[in-house]
Amino acid sequence: MNKKFYITTPIYxxxxxxHIGHCYTTIAADAIxxxxxxxxxxxxxxxxxxxxxxxxxxxxxxxxxTPKEYVDKIIENAKDLWASLDISYDYFIRTTDEQHIKGVQxxxxxxxxxxxxxxxxxxxxxxxxxxSFWTNSQLIDGKxxxxxxxxxxxxxxxxxxxxxxxxxxxxxxxDKNPNFILPLTRKNELVNNFIKPGLEDLCVSRTxxxxxxxxxxxxxxxxxxxxxxxxxxxxxxxYPDEDAxxxxxxxxxxxxxxxxxxxxxxxxxxxxLLMALGIDTPKQVFGHGWLVINGGKISKSLGNYKDPREYIxxxxxxxxxxxxxxxxxxxxxxxxxxxxxxxxxxxxxxxxLGNLFNRTVSMAxxxxxxxxENKDVLEDYDKSLIDSVNDLDKILNEKMDGLKINEALEExxxxxxxxxxxxxxxxxxxxxxxxxxxDRLETVLYNLLESIRVxxxxxxxxxxxxAGKIFKVLNTDKTSYEFNTFNKDNKYNLNxxxxxxxxxxxx
Length: 507
Ligand code: ME8
Fold this sequence. Notes:
Layout: E1 4-12, H1 20-38, E2 42-49, H2 54-63, H3 67-84, E3 91-94, H4 98-113, E4 117-127, E5 132-134, E6 152-161, H5 167-176, E7 181-182, H6 184-195, E8 202-203, E9 205-206, E10 222-223, H7 225-230, H8 232-235, H9 245-250, E11 255-259, H10 263-277, E12 285-288, E13 291-292, H11 308-315, H12 317-326, E14 334-335, H13 338-368, E15 371-373, H14 380-401, H15 405-426, H16 428-431, H17 438-462, H18 464-474, E16 491-493
Helix pairs in contact: 1-17, 2-3, 6-10, 11-12, 12-13, 13-15, 13-17, 14-15, 14-17, 15-17, 17-18
This protein binds ligand ME8.
């Protein structure tokens, strides 16, 4: 039986204003999910929308509609964005789904019945845009440490989750599973800033917020939006029914991929809740960095970004996907600019891959009418290219297991670079002048086509659109993982060459 792999993105706040930063988590999760599928894993890739909370209610109010009407309409924007980026999610959860609402209510009741949730009074500081409670010591200059905006003092009757009870168990979880929080810098931040100062019990209900999941045994309360949101990862699988087929098959999650600012919710509150529920904790929480513009946050109010679909329209899906996956070491912050996107596209996609593919296929047509077989007339230096191609599997597996996505792509594109170098060494246009070198010429073209084919098997994980185009021209059905090594006995009958990418002129 295939091994399972459950990967999630955060569930997004429904928005009319998505930017390239929002696409970051999802494009990365998509590449990981596709890579695992390629390898034969039974993958469940989940994304969705986080639709409750004061912020949404406020926006709906401004638009003169009910919160549900507001989210129903705006949700399509997220689905459309993911479709335009070729995101291959298996399940899209909405926190307004009936199954999710019932699941969250059952979770809350179970924790209350067993004493992990109790009633008390909340006095504290709340940041409405971030839906986060803060203590005085956590504020920076008296403002929300995440977004820098004003916090409000609130006092109200509230339910609390005994988070403090799980302090030692969380430390044990991190110690026993060194890869639970990655990259390591995030783990150190969490332990030093949150765990070591001592965890306080967490306020998990609000009476002043109306748009949310009602506590069914005390309906003047709604469930704190982060408890609601985090639960999505199991309600989608059928929890609280622990015998639900999806839950049995896919839980625990293999990776929760999140942005760095929400790592603490996923690596502290979420595993503590799961421990309280008596179910397994996820295997890994990976907190990636931010894409920034001019060193600062991408922000609607600064007006410093375009809708990602505008970049897709101009440069193509795969230019955007490639940039996001390749430009920044996965985990660190990185700068987004249209100029950097153009430079990356021209250097790697146009000059390296595009050029290689076009000239290889063109030569195959020019010299052999597109029909190429291996004539096995080898030179010493051929071996080095073929060995590199056959090493890809091991290298890419290592890189992807460590979520070094940018390095994996670098290795893959190094094969295309080596193929270009091989053309320069073999000089097919010189061989073509000599009838006696005809078999050597055909061998050279075979080696190139076969190397491109194997690399493209992997390229499917990152640039599915481009990989599809390459396979179509190669006219091959050897596209799956089982054909991931250099085979001497394929036969090519190529379709016409195409330009994979157009050079982008800088205005
Ligand atoms: O946080 N660079 O939703 P969200 C990189 N609903 N990633 C960025 C980014 C940037 N400039 N801006 C946003 C939420 N993101 C909650 C999650 S999960 C139970 C609830 C990433 O719509 C961000 O880090 O604000 C997060 O991973 C994702 O976009 C969704 O952010």
